[in-house]
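User: We ran a pulldown and think these components assemble together. Before we commit to crystallization trials, I'd like a predicted model of the whole complex to look at. Sequences follow.
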Amino acid sequence: MEGISFEHPKRGEFALIETIRRHAAASAMVPVGIGDDCAVVNAPGGQMVITTDLVNEGVHFKLDDPLRKVGWKAAAVSFSDVAAMGLRPEVLLCAAALPGRLTMDDAREIFLGVNDACREFGVALAGGDTTSCRGGLSLCTTVLAYARDLRPVLRSGAKPGDAIVVTGSLGGSILGRHLDVRPRVEEAVALNSHFELHAMIDVSDGLSADLNHILEESSVGAVIDADRVPVSDAAREFSEQTRKTPLQHALTDGEDFELLFTMPPGEAQRLIERPPFATPLTVIGSITAAGLSIRIGDKTEPFEPGGYEHFVE
Amino acid sequence: MEGISFEHPKRGEFALIETIRRHAAASAMVPVGIGDDCAVVNAPGGQMVITTDLVNEGVHFKLDDPLRKVGWKAAAVSFSDVAAMGLRPEVLLCAAALPGRLTMDDAREIFLGVNDACREFGVALAGGDTTSCRGGLSLCTTVLAYARDLRPVLRSGAKPGDAIVVTGSLGGSILGRHLDVRPRVEEAVALNSHFELHAMIDVSDGLSADLNHILEESSVGAVIDADRVPVSDAAREFSEQTRKTPLQHALTDGEDFELLFTMPPGEAQRLIERPPFATPLTVIGSITAAGLSIRIGDKTEPFEPGGYEHFVE
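Assistant: Here's a predicted model for the assembly, 626 residues in total across the polymer chains.
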């Protein structure tokens, strides 16, 4: 879930989102709605978070991708949204729009993939809906989690001076990792349990675009240290087939599903010195009062989120 | 939500559903999963119910249907699933797969329709997801409700001797009502608050098919009194264009979104004598130990759910 947003922006998109956000039927039950990885709901026994996500043939996967992996991905992207709130996913529902050309064995493969992910992450597969459709395969997953003794981490809490930290390495997920999504659930829960997090998001649109979501929701800016951005091997490999540098891929490719978060600099130091897990952690910059810029060597220049044209060689 | 089921059954469907049901990652948190209108979740503050539903272009609506009504329908069908549990919908999320030919104004109309339904029924629009797709328009709505001081009414509680009751009148929804869905939320909550309900479902697949869902989940049978089935004006009108009788339409047409429920016969008498709302209520038969049959005049004969061939004149 990205609140209500568009992966492939069109003219008028932001006006539409703002219209919906302004007019959406509101409720004291929903303190955080459109504009975060999950909605936060004030439930009778405490807060819960909930997210819904669509993955569509031809956009998020190809029909010749293994269907069991497609099912896995559909579940895993929603788990990643819950992880981005610092919580552990608990319950999943999956709705599938199945084109007529798919067989029952195909449908079975998809649901087995969804179920694989549920088992792997200890999530209950609670139900769903299966319908026929005239177009391509679409899977819609909904996942919820209760805050219990934790606090949902929002996008909106980043403060000037915060360190910006990212898990893992970034870029080139199209080479395979976009199907083998490993949501950072254990890492998210460990971070939220033992450290003061100000803001968090998962990297689905790309590092710079997702950092920008934090900046917009928090009304702050940021400086990224280009030299520190953890570039994945896949980004390097992919750059050999493209006109972009590995760094460009790390900054702008989508579907890494790493965690991107901000925290007080002292907390970041404590985290880096004694990380609670083996997954790499990198401080890639800091939150400022306003604007987004990038430091490359001695030079700092303004940076457009998603705007890799600054780096075309 | 229909658990995981297929509106347009294909060979192997039931084997698939049973496979999924048997293998689905289970949890003590989800006492009722696949096989009811909503999943029931044991949340920290009490039980909640949750449903997810897809509506797809070319299956549940046509692209030349007014998009605001399509949005309304997507929300209303999920509200109806919550009503079928005897509860009041509280929070909605909506995910949309938007084909490239739709404009931002089209997307706005869809979300305004979803929002219209949320406002009408006092539901919070908490968020969603919007993605592009290569095929037709699909909308996936997820709705949740907390049981609070009520008990979710399942499909599985019908007992031999129960009266079978239905709200409103049935058939011919394709003439218009399938877009102007009026989920029976107030009726459901009044029934669940003041009467002993054994089982309930909403009529989405058609009276006989949905009654059969109750029978299968409850391991019981039923006799329907054909003369008592409330046939809608739309069923009569539609039968003039088809080779079916109005009764056939009332028994087998989908998307009526009326409530179908069973209760002890004494409770049914009390309900009919002092109904808590103006919506018509009709006792259409009774639950038996096994089998499904229909009584027409003096004759009682076996009846195939959805099997209107018994009635071809």
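Helices of chain A lie at 13-23, 67-83, 104-120, 185-194, 207-218, 233-239, 246-252, 265-273. That may be worth checking against your pulldown data before setting up trials.

User: Thanks, that helps.
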